[in-house]
Amino acid sequence: MAFLLSGCTVGPNYQRPDLQSPPAFMSQAAVAARSVPAGPEASTWWASFKDPLLSDLVNQALAQNLDIAEVIARGVQARAALRQADAALLPSATLSGQAAATRQSIESPAGRLIAATPGSDRNAKYYEVDLDARWEIDLFGGLRREREAAIADYVAFRADVAAVRLAVAAQVADTYIVIRGLQTRFAIAEAQVRTQQHLVDIVALQYRKGVAAELQLRQAEGALSQVKATLPLLQMALDSAENALDVLLGAQPGTYRAQLLPMAGTIPTAPAVADIGGPADLLRRRPDLTVAEQKLISANALVGSAISEYYPKLDLSGLLGTATGSASRLFTGAANQSQGIAGLRWRLFDFARVDAEIVAAKGRRAEALAAYRLAILRASEDVENAFSALINSESQSRDLAEGEASLARAQRASLVAYKGGVVSLIEVLDADGRLLTTRDARAQAQTQAARAAVASFRALGGGWDSSRASGVL
Predict the structure, then answer these.
(1) Domain span holding position 439
(2) CA-based max dimension of the chain
(3) Which of 117, 141, 93 shows the shortest CA–CA distance to 311?
(4) How far apart are alpha carbons 469 and 473 in whole angstroms?
(5) Are residues 357 and 436 in the same domain?
């Protein structure tokens, strides 16, 4: 009867919520139509930037990042909880033994009684060995619901590891691109400093010859100082980004700084973002969404565990052992002892507390459901924002490239015209300033486009699939 009843499981079975989503992302067609070379498979998306140093840094971070080490260490707890839930469904047995030797005081009441009894001995020995077994029959599935929750928690942990790994890889790539962008902007500013210094030298020579007014010299010097003042700000931002990269790699700030110098000023080109899929595909491709759903599954299972408290619990226990006062007779038939017990526990007069526990469990399930729905919406938002940034940053970069070419010609023409006395120094300084602003803006647009590509890979799940987490048990 116990085996038959153990097939009964109370509480709601999990069903994935019905979620409505559009067939495609708003910018999906524009992203798919980008005329850039395709990269490798999505699981190693960082290699599509064609930057060996970037690939090396990402691989190092995945091997030694401390956030990843922390989340893996937390997995020991999830695995232990699952083993405990498995063990709760099985019988447990305890083997115990004892040997005792006593000498009774004859000054105590019991000792006086022994002393007054002929043939009694104040010395005694006792030996006992017992095997005690216990099994809680899971009549209404409370323990099975708890195991279901433990499985969901463990699958969530596996997905959480993937989510952290994806986040670390994306942060390393993003930080590396920021560093390359800042190095490019620093090089542009340094080149402009040299240009402005050359102009100051020309005006100073003219001033000494009495051809140029002091006002023109001071204007040129002021423009040079303005460009120089941007260098410390760029260097400060560069130092912060390089320090952040070192920490992502699990190292002290400054450890990897030397490796970033050989390719200074090269901003990785944003690669193709292939195999986009639709919003519905994010459920299997985003590890954070798997984490959110597994938490909902766990919360749903614990509702059933709480409901099972309405019903009685059946325990079976038994004891096989031997006890004697002489070690030589320990395992003889006369020393054998046994016991069998069937126990029933029922919270018959505690239903108000059980009601409260069920309400609390349902509240946690509602909270997990809201978090799951919100996670899906935010995942779609991440993709839409990343796609928009990618398309518009690349468009901005193309426009700025055309403007940079025109302004470079204008700058050269203004300097020649100034030397010929055709235009004033103000026009030369204005041409220099416009060119510097455009070059700097283009470097920022290129950086933003590459960062948007990283954000796109991350938002799409980085090639991860939910079956990798659910197929581990």
Answers:
(1) 11-89+139-311+351-470
(2) 139
(3) 141
(4) 9
(5) yes
CB 65 within 8 A of CB 170: no
Non-local CB neighbours of 394 within 8 Å, separated by 6+ positions: 34, 270, 445, 449
Task: Give the CA-trace dihedral at 214, 215, 219, 221, to 10 degrees.
Answer: 20
Is 237 within a domain? yes
Quickly count: other Cβ atoms within 10 Å of residue 1's Cβ: 8
SS3 323: strand
The domain total for the chain is 2
Structure tokens at 153: 């928690």
Contacts of residue 351, defined as CB under 8 A and 6 or more positions apart, other chains included, come to 310
Residues 129, 178 share a domain: no
Is residue 4 one of the residues assigned to a domain? no
Tell me, what amino acid is at 470? S
- β-partners of residue 323 are 128
The tokens describing 349, both together, are 């007069």
Residue 374: other Cβ atoms inside 10 A? 11
Q: How far is residue 241's CA from residue 249's CA, in Å, rounded to a whole number?
A: 13
- The CA distance from 472 to 111, in Å, is 65
Helix (H) or strand (E) holding 305: helix 287-307
Q: How far apart are CA 416 and CA 428, in angstroms?
A: 9
Q: Give 5's pLDDT tier (boundaries 50, 70, 90).
A: very low
| Dist CA 200 CA 204 (whole Å) | 6
Give CA–CA dist 108/113, Å, rounded: 9
DSSP single-letter state for residue 265: T
pLDDT tens per residue across span 135-164: 888 888 888 999 999 999 999 998 999 999
135, 142, 143, 374 from 7: Cα distances, Å: 16, 11, 12, 36
Same domain, 430 and 463: yes
Query: 256 is written with which tokens?
Result: 């990897």
Convert the pLDDT of each residue in 43-94 to its tens digit. Answer: 789 999 999 999 999 999 999 999 999 888 888 888 888 888 888 888 888 9
Place of tokens 């340094």: 190
Model confidence pLDDT, tens digit, residues 444-456: 999 999 999 999 9
Q: Are residues 165 and 246 in the same domain?
A: yes
Residues 102-122 have pLDDT tens digits of: 888 887 887 777 777 777 777
